[in-house]
Write a structure and sequence with these properties.
single chain; alpha/beta; Aspartate Aminotransferase, domain 1; Aspartate Aminotransferase, domain 2; binds 4'-deoxy-4'-aminopyridoxal-5'-phosphate
């Protein structure tokens, strides 16, 4: 029987897992996924159209994405010889790292609440996963608990999202250094929200040979292109590159990212608008009674209400989709997360929130 065969040949971890669920926003205002709310700048669209229409789609893409790597180094102020690996989103880079170390006795470790993919990818690749709770009040690293868990678990990989998703804060740099210094394997600093935070751990690469920095173009306004990058010492990049499928980034994606990053200043203007709106939203949420909002170094805000299920449903009814975190982790009781949108979208969210509280 078909089902017996399926049970017999699909791995137990896969049978036990569920596919990652993404809510369909329909025609609602979409503030659930940390996307940049602004489209590709108008000044670039004609150029993009002609570039893409002339692309040699009969040929495979450049497997090394050399041109795009050079553009990324220039756009993000990296050294001209900085070794890089590009992924189909930084999700793919997390998967590549996990695949390269995977094994039943291997542990991947991350603070929690954190980015769900670390745990999901650890399970999918057949490794163990250890989550270490953050401090409840401000979501800072519980450094004693982290160091004890590192000592106990001897993790091959420690993931630190900096700023952290879904809490929005950056962990104290001294605590981050202590984790890096205690880790027996590699430490991955995931800087997906770097554009909204300012400083970076890239400079620490020169100091720590077992540090890996991940970035993505997704939050910068190019989520549809699915491009992330890893910066690390060349010997690590060489190993991870063996795990990468040869043509993981399509020609159109490489071309479009190169052309858009060449006009990086246009994206910077969008980031500035998002930062201004983040402050306005934060102030507005702080002023609402029954709402507790945390500071954010990212393009989203975490907040707590008295009944997250009711507020989430009320927002949906009023045409606004955000992310419900309530139920995903004990520290996120009655918490919701809203991505910073355009001023109009944020106004609509605030209006819907006021009537849903
Ligand atoms: N890291 C973190 C911390 C994230 O929040 C996300 C997206 N939510 C990613 C990585 C993945 O981003 P992408 O695959 O789009 O590059």
């Amino acid at each position: 029987m078909m089902n017996d065969r399926l049970q017999r040949i699909i791995r137990p971890q896969t049978l036990a897992a569920s596919a990652y669920q993404v809510h369909d926003a329909g025609d609602r205002i979409k503030l659930d996924a940390m996307e940049n709310p602004y489209p590709v700048p108008a000044a670039l669209r004609a150029e993009l159209a002609s570039l893409l229409s002339a692309a040699p789609l009969n040929r495979y893409p450049d497997p090394q994405a050399r041109r795009l790597k050079a553009r990324i180094r220039a756009s993000f102020g990296l050294a001209a010889d900085q070794p890089l690996l590009l992924g189909n989103g930084s999700d793919e880079l997390i998967q590549i790292i996990a695949q390269a170390v995977a094994g039943p006795d291997v542990t991947l470790l991350a603070p929690e609440p954190g980015f769900a993919m670390y745990r999901l990818i650890a399970a999918a690749t057949g490794s163990r996963y250890a989550g270490v709770d953050l401090n409840a009040a401000d979501f800072s690293l519980d450094i004693d608990a982290m160091l004890a868990a590192i000592e106990r678990e001897r993790p091959a990989v420690v993931f630190l999202a900096w700023p952290n998703n879904p809490t929005g804060n950056r962990f104290d740099l001294n605590a981050v250094r202590r984790v890096i210094e205690a880790a027996p394997g590699i430490v991955v600093i995931d800087e997906a929200y770097h554009a909204f935070a300012g400083n970076s751990c890239v400079d620490l690469l020169a100091e720590y040979a077992h540090l890996i920095v991940l970035r993505t173009l997704s939050k910068l306004g190019l989520a549809g292109l699915r491009i992330g990058f890893m910066a690390a010492a060349g010997d690590w990049i060489e190993q991870f590159d063996k795990q990468r499928l040869p043509y993981n980034l399509g020609t159109l994606n490489q071309l479009a990212a190169d052309a858009i990053l060449a006009r990086h200043e246009l994206l910077d203007e969008q980031v500035a608008a998002i930062l201004a709106e983040r402050e306005r939203l934060h102030t507005a949420l702080q002023a609402l009674s029954g709402v507790q909002v945390w500071p954010s170094d990212a393009n989203f805000l975490l907040f707590r209400v008295t009944d997250a299920d009711r507020v989430y449903a009320g927002l949906l009814e009023r045409g606004v989709l955000i992310k419900k975190l309530h139920g995903s982790h004990a520290l996120l009781d009655n918490c919701l997360r809203v991505t910073v949108g355009t001023p109009e979208e944020n106004d609509a969210f605030l209006e819907a929130l006021r009537t849903s509280l």
